[in-house]
Fold each of these.
Amino acid sequence: MILKAFHVCLSTILFIYSLTANAIETTPVGTIAMYAGIDPPSNWLRCDGSNVSRKTYATLFDVIGTLYGVGDNVNTFTLPDFRGRFPLGLDRNQNQKVGANQGGNSNHTLTESELPSHQHNQGTLLISDSGIHTHAYDDPGHNHGGQTGDSVMGGGDRGMIRGGGAHDYGRHTHTINTDTVRIQIRNSGTHSHNITGLTGSTGTNQSFSLMPPWQTIDFIIYTGNK
């Protein structure tokens, strides 16, 4: 009975081992996975941009070569670096190449060309000249028509008839016509003003975060080592 139980346990262990071995063998060398543990499992390395031995990890080097960096260009090569980065699916239609493309920023400050159409308050504007000027005018001249009336009495002595009343023969009036001055002011004072100053400023020119909600985790790569 004991011997039979031993054989059953041994068979189970061998079966589990074979499943594990097959699973390992079917994992392609160079596979990158997310890993929640502290230390990578056996035959896996962190994707942290480290330089590792071309000899020790020859199987992995045969797969990725120097796609992610040449290392020291003799004895080492560089692992992919996913520190603080998200993976992005390769788009060969955009001439992207494996390992050759990186981009993006966690923070960004908008440039003027990226701003949407908007308006500013007028702020305080100053006129550089007060606008003082003069006007020239033309006076065409004029006269007042008419003339004084002639005296009704000629020269000579004047007297009074005896016993008669006095006659005021020299009394008369003069009418003088009126007229306007007709002064014309010519157009003048055409000028322009240079306005100095800036519109009221707004904003703080601070960068802002582009990061979506996130959770840190390790990326690891399968080396294929036995």
Amino acid sequence: MLGFLGCREGAQPDPYRVATFEGQADSVSCLLAGDGSMVVVSDAAIGGVGGVYRFDPESYALTQLAATGAQFIALDDDFLVAGSVPGRFQAVPLFRVPLAGGELERVSGIDGVRSLATDAGAYYWHQRGSDGGIYRFDPGDGMLDLMFATDEVRGDLVVSNGWLYWAERQRVSRMPTSGGAPETLLDHPSEPTELSRPIAVDDIYVYFGVDTLTNPRLVAVPLAGGQPLEVAAVTRPPTAVAARDGFVYWAEGEQNRNEPMGGRVTISRRHRDQRPAEVLAERQNGVSSIVPEDGRVFWCD
């Protein structure tokens, strides 16, 4: 199927499409570069055309930075850092490319990533297998460190104010980006739940989805730990979560579990201290990411 980049601006009643990705797009993810322009990664399915693109939200211009797709992306000053799981469509496992344009540079010694974050010039990712764990890599000195051995990370890695956050099957944890023992913020060992892939962090909470057959919901837990708070009851665990300026944004679908990218998808938001939620858009394709930006909300579907 095609990949799309959509937008809802201010009080405008209707969302609109700002970019279309030709070819067999398997997934599309997006985030904001430091100068306010959009960086979009389209991961091509077998036989499709993938690539890393820079999107200008003012002119809607798309500029290709690299002709290879990726599943995970992060920003490091003037670079886009991107990666894929091992063997994913023959994509480069982990690479970086200048946001201003230039040659793709492979980060050596890495076989593949399953989530990715950056902070102060260092790269963080999770990989599975016999060497499963959360790793830190400094491209300046080439040092690679295993920060925490685990094969249970199922969600995103998020860096915020010197802390690295992640979700496992039934646990939300954090640890200093400089290293140290992980702290458990939430643990439900007796509840038959599984936390959803996307998580988001603001100055007060970590937001994530809880997947149960009877009570899926969007939940927040304080950064210092404590009792979880229900942000919203949802029809399915969120496929995308974002937080900015006191608001939390999420996408939820009425998908069949065997067809995760089909069915109607609703993009909503609510202030963390207020109810009810506001529906921003309804889509027919699965939404893989949401980016709030100065009165506008972008998403990829």
